[in-house]
Amino acid sequence: MSEAWQALSAVGAIESRGRAGTFIQETSEPSRPVRYLSVGLAPSASGIDLSTSMPDPLLLPSLRTALEAVTGNSLAWTTSYLEDPVLPALEALLRSSWPYDPARLVTVDGALDGLARVIEQVVGLGDRVAMENPGFPALIDLLESRGAEIIPMAMDDSGVLPQELARALEQDPVAVFMHPRAQNPTGAAFTPARLGELVKVLRPFRAIVIETDHSGAIAESEDLSVGSFLVDRTVRIRSYSKSHGPDLRIAALSGPAHIVDPLMARRMLGPGWTSRILQSVLVQLLVDPHSQASVAHAAGVYSRRTFALKAALEEKGVRASPGDGLNIWVEVNDERSALLTLAAAGIRVAPGSPFMVEPLPAQFLRITSGLLPDEPEELAEIAGHVVVAARVLPSARGGIS
Ligand SMILES: Cc1ncc(COP(=O)(O)O)c(C=O)c1O
After folding, report:
1. Which residues of the chain are under the pLDDT cut of 70?
2. Checking DSSP bridges between strand 347-351 and strand 48-50, what pairing results, if any?
3. Cα 35 to averaged position of ligand 1 atoms, centre (Å)
4. Which of 88, 254, 357, 369 is deepest in the core (most CB within 10 A)?
5. pLDDT at position 401
6. Ligand 1, atom 2, residue with closest C-alpha
7. How far is the centre of ligand 1, averaged over its atoms, from the C-alpha of 204 (Å)?
8. For position 82, what pLDDT does the model report?
């Protein structure tokens, strides 16, 4: 009994109210994704929405040929509950493009579904976990709703700093969450040297590494993975949302059998498997040279748009993160004033604070530079508004100064 009380108290599940006795803690709004929802709460603007981190619909590969190829013949193969959950053709393609040879490689319904399912397997109430700061708001929400204690890790342009990882690991987290490239919101990406340093720091500890390559083929950086060195301790998720379309709802997930097998068993009591029709569409898109060219073209366009905005901002002394992938992280004097200034110019962007596990020394905006116009004058005009917004100081009344 005494051990049970201690365990409950250690995870903050009970509250001692002196002579009144000991009570189970009340939880308010247990799993409302507060941060995730607040990214969309920037003031609305009638002009251009750069708050979403969504791919440009005009740069996604066309689905027409793939859908025709998949649905043109008999659909008898789509009627069974008993087949392998992953199409052998898709698994072969995934394995041939994976940065290492994992024990298990399966599909889930998007990267966020993958994260939620791994967290369910690996993280328990009161466990410590480490993640990048700033990081993906939905991941912070997921971890908080699980009752985990999050240890923030500071980053630079090459991802998590090795000394920050070492400091976090001293606190014995069960899992470390990292994004090897196109990190959301900063666009940071591992270099081979940084990856080597992080692996060296990780090696003596037990923590599982959970990596999300959420941008996949539209990222320009190398596809590097901790899994190439710590295969038995790495879960890796690659989304096809940004490269091939969010509505495919497909991400690939790899990991050791002791994590992925129970995950898939649990999934049988839910969606069961990823629609084989959608899996087949992805197979077609991955093998079709036109789709391949379309994804490569998109990566180049996103990179040019991001580079153009970054260059225009830096020329005026506004600091912006490296921006691999769809987003750029821009330092501003005051988040709220900057959001309002941009909204007044018809430009919607995301506030920086929902991305912060704990407050950072400066304030930021996340701008989905991947959705910028290609026309140089239009882009320069938007960059000009961002420069003005970044410089606005907070007014005493909280309005725009
Ligand atoms: C870091 C990160 N992970 C996961 C996702 C969601 O990916 P999916 O559409 O595959 O669920 C996003 C979407 O923006 C993201 O930025």
Report:
1. 7, 9-16, 25-31, 41, 396-401
2. parallel
3. 14
4. 369
5. 42
6. 214
7. 30
8. 84
* Local structure of 121: helix, strand or coil: helix
- Count the neighbouring beta carbons within 10 Å of the beta carbon of residue 271: 13
Return the pLDDT at 15. Answer: 67
Please give the pLDDT value at position 266: 96
Give the integer Cα–Cα distance in Å for 250 and 257.
Answer: 20
Nearest CA to ligand 1 atom 14: 53
> What three-state secondary structure class fits 22?
strand
User: What's the 141 CA to ligand 1 centre distance in angstroms?
Assistant: 13
Residue 29: per-residue pLDDT: 52
Distance CA 21, CA 12 (A): 15
**Ligand 1 site: residues with CB under 6 angstroms?**
53, 110-112, 136, 179, 184, 212, 214, 239, 241, 246, 251
What distance in angstroms lies between residue 357's CA and the mean position of ligand 1's atoms? 17
Ligand 1 mean position, distance from CA 118 (Å):
15
Identify the pLDDT of residue 262. 98
43-59+291-391: in CATH 3.40.630.30: no
Q: How many helices (H) and strands (E) does the chain have?
A: 14, 15
**pLDDT tens-digit series, residues 367-401:** 999 999 999 999 999 999 999 999 999 875 544 44
Q: Give the type of residue at 138.
A: A
Location of each CATH 3.40.640.10 domain in the chain: 66-72+83-287
Contact 317, 364 (CB under 8 A): no
Atom of ligand 1 nearest to the CA of 179: 1
- Atom number in ligand 1 closest to CA 240: 10
Q: What span, in angstroms and rounded, lies between the C-alpha atoms of 132 and 136?
A: 8
CATH 3.90.1150.10 segments of the chain: 43-59+291-391
| CA 209/CA 206 separation, integer angstroms | 9
Res 240: pLDDT:
98
109: amino acid identity, one letter: D
User: Please, what is the average pLDDT of the chain?
Assistant: 93
C-beta of residue 386 within 8 angstroms of C-beta of residue 313: yes
| Cα 111 to middle of ligand 1, angstroms | 5
